[in-house]
Structure formats: structure tokens, C-alpha cells
Amino acid sequence: MTDTAACWTALENAPTATLKDLFAADADRVGRYSATLAVPGSDILFDWSKTHLSDDLVAGFEALASAAGFDTARETMLNGGMANPTEGRAAEHTAQRGMGADESVAEADAFHMRMRGLVEAIHGGVFGPVKHLIHIGIGGSALGPALAIDALARPTAEWRAPVDVHVVSNIDGNALEAAFEACDPATTMIAVASKTFTTIETMTNAASAIQWLEESGVADAYGKVVALTASPDKAVEWGVDETRVLPFSESVGGRYSLWSSIGFPVAIALGWDGFAEFLEGAAAVDRHFADADGFANLPLRAAFVDLMYVQLRGCQTRAVFAYDERLALFPDYLQQLEMESNGKSVLADGSPLGRQSAPITWGGVGTDAQHAVFQLLHQGTVEVPVDFIAVKQPGHDLDPEHHAILLTNCFAQGAALMAGKDSDDGARAYPGNRPSATILCEKMDPATLGALIAFHEHRTFANAVLLGINPFDQFGVELGKQIANQIAAGEGEGFDPSTEALLKTAGLKD
Ligand code: F6P
């Protein structure tokens, strides 16, 4: 078996060609580098033809996948094995969608049934009229719900349930106050979402929400709270009645937890059937990821592209532009998924990685971004691989012209980045040969969004396996939290002069 170092050397020495030459050499490049992922009721098309992927590179990356033990790592993860060795546990987000160890799938089903009961009780009026839900959580306990609700619970969506959900993450009181302003306390419930049920931002916001309810005359404020957590005892201790605690397994990572009870606000906003379709969309991708091998495995193929740009072409960032307002939060979601998962400097065994890990994921929404940051993509000095994500069906009833302009612009940007344009005037010349991939969804519905997110989870995992890192821990976030806690506890003697001066100027220290 070839070792991974030899595979990387072979990849680094593989011939390269410009996008123009790659297209010129292969009349069927679009067909060979595009693929369709079947989603219940729809399809997602992936077009990687405008990337620098070539047959040589695909062969090289397939050899790397084999040398890195991709098939075994995938099996371990999908079967509830030890996928997260540094934290000593499995990574069982797929069990939430029906794929995993039998007992984990059974437990996830039972937790879903419990959640469904509460969702249907709320929709059915058991808690009196509920018109608003303030969902309090941060990181993985907020980004997924915020994305799914913004994408799917639009006013005209057929599956939309009659409860407005406000996701509040930031400790900055301006965020929570804005939610209070938008809600009537008499008809509001609060979801406190925290895997650990200790996160300071979430617990502080939750306490303020209780205070707001009490000061607004709500008789049993804690009776309006639902807890979504892998630490149910802590939620009960905090004051939530056990009947309104929706647990999930410790082996579901925070940034992979949208499918568990952290998805409660999504089910409240969409109705249970909508949430079930969301899970089913993700499950369809799980089946593909489990069954397809090598280049035919689309999340793995996407990882080939990612690694080609970072490792072979030195790109330090990757950009994602959603040409669809409904997916405006998708880049934010991906930032946590990709950067918290793969922004590491060591291999799974703790030894130095010795190469760049995850690129910086950034992006925005089209066409807005064209008028703000695309200058750099077209004429800047760095190569930035771009993913364009678009949706064929508009989802609104305005003049179809809106959608035609939106999609036209999306495709035009990819074409322009690749083609470039010569000019005698340097300022007006475009180098071209700049890569992009296009992900075109048929429509934006729960199954499609579930599939799109699951695709990116597996893509992130595939990147990690080929690099040899553990994508499921996140020790890098701890040090800053510890220092903040020390400062808050008045144990902050001896910080650097800059930090000391800032604390004093802000009135946080004498
Ligand atoms: O600080 C990072 C992090 O641990 C994320 O991984 C997680 O999604 C977030 O904080 C919130 O954690 P919790 O759900 O435990 O409140």
C-alpha cells in the first residue's frame, strides 16, 4: 500500500493545465465533471468542469484516499465507531437520519418521537396560543436552525407552521432585545439550546429571557421553556421541567447537531412533516456517501477539488456565494462546519500536520457580492476557488425576470472568471483561468436543504480523512473561553499590557 506522502508527491508532480486547455482537450468535460445527486422529489446538479481537476489528479487523489484509509474511516464514522479519538467518542450525526449503530439509531428515533410530541402539542395549543419562539443558542446550537428557518420558513412556503422563530445567539443584549421587541411575551415560548448547557452566552441570554417573561407578567416563566441539550440533568437543575427537556446524544457534535433536538425550532417553524423531509434529504446523501466509491462519491470528489486548490495550488481561502436569498446564511453555516472541523495543525494522533489544513471559508449572497467583493476574485493577485450555489425554481411570485437575472448573473460570473479578457490596458485586463464550481438545486425545500447540508458535512469529513486530521474536536476554542472566565472571575492578573489597558479603558478592571 502506498503511503500518503508518496501520494502527495505524485499529486504535486502531476501535470497541470489551464481551464481553457482542459476544455479544449475534452469535448465531454462538462459531462464527465458534472454529476447529479438524487434528493427525494428533486435533484442537485454539481458542475466541477470549471475547476482544474484532471484525470491525472483524480487518479492521484483516489490513490491518496486509498492510502489514507478513506473507506475504513467512512465505515467507522457511519457505523458509530471511534471517529473522534481525541474526545474518545463516535460522531453520530448520521444516526439522527437513520444510518449508524442500531442502538444509536433507535435512541435517535426515540428522541425524535419525544420531540415530535412536544412540537405537535405546541402546534395543537396545549401550551395556549404560541405565536413566537425565541431560540437561544450559539455556534452549532444556532447556525443550523437560523439557516434552515431563514431558507425554508418563508411566508409563502407551503410547509410553514404558524409560529415565528427568532434565533438569538450573541451575548450582546442588542440581539436579545430585538427579539423581545418582535414578540408578545404572552404568546412566546423560549428554546434554550446548548449541548453542554453551560455556554455562558446561552445561559446568560436564557436567564434574561426568563426575566423578560416574568417582568411581562407571565405567571410560570420556566413553564414556557424547552431545553435542547445533551446534558439533560443540567437543564433540569437550571429549572426546566423534565417533560420539556429534549435530549440528544453526547456523540452528536455541536456543529453536526441540527438533525437532533437542536432542530426543534426548525420543526416548530416548518411543522413535523417538513422536518422529517429535511432529515430524509440528508439521509439520501448519507446513502450515496456510504455506497459510492472514489470519484463517483460526490462529497469525496468535492474534497479532491478542495485539496487540489489548498495543497497543490496554494489557495488559502475558498469562497461560497449563494445566488439565492433563501441561502444567505449558508456561508455562515459553512464557516463553522469547515473551519471548526478542519482548522487544525495536528494529525489525529497529535503529531504535526506539516501542511496547510482547512482554507478560510468565506462568501456571501449573489448578486450583492458582485457589487462588493468580486473585483478581487476577477483581478486580485490570489486564486480563490469559488462555489456558486443556485436554485432553479424561484420560490417567490414576482416577475420571473428577477430569477432570470439572478441565475444569469451567477453563470456569467463563473464564465467570466474562467475566460478572462485580454486588454492592452492592464487595469482593464482579466487574467481568467480562475476556478469555480456550480451547485444547482432544482428547488429549495426541506429535503434539498437537508441534502445540501449533509453533502457539505461529508465533504468536510472527506477533507479531514485525506489530511489525516480529526474533524470532530474543537480544542482551539477553549483557550479564549478560559481567559474570559478568568477575567470575569477577577483572576486576571498578569495579562499582557495591551489586554490590561483595554480592560481598564472599558471599565472592566480598576
Ligand atoms: O465554542 C465552540 C462550541 O463548543 C461549538 O462547537 C458549539 O457548537 C458551541 O460552542 C455551542 O456549544 P453548546 O451547544 O454546548 O452551548
Structural commentary:
The chain has 510 residues and is α/β, with parallel strands linked by helices. Helix content is 45%, strand content 12%. The protein has 19 helices and eleven strands. The strands form two sheets. The protein has a six-stranded mixed β-sheet, sandwiched between helices. Strands 4-3-5-6-7 form a five-stranded parallel β-sheet, with helices on both faces. Strand 6, helix 10 (232-238) and strand 7 (245-247) form a beta-alpha-beta unit. Helix 1 runs antiparallel to helix 4, helix 12 runs parallel beside helix 17 (446-467) and helix 14 packs parallel to helix 17. The longest helix is centred in the N-terminal third of the chain and has 22 residues, at 102-123. The N and C termini lie far apart (63 Å). The model has no long low-confidence stretch (mean pLDDT 96). The chain binds 6-O-phosphono-beta-D-fructofuranose. 6-O-phosphono-beta-D-fructofuranose binds at residues 138-141, 194-196, 199, 202, 254-255, 340, 474, 477.
* Helical proportion, percent range: 40-55%
**Terminal CA distance:** 63 Å
Strands of the widest sheet, in order across it, are 1-2-11-10-8-9
Secondary-structure-derived class: alpha/beta
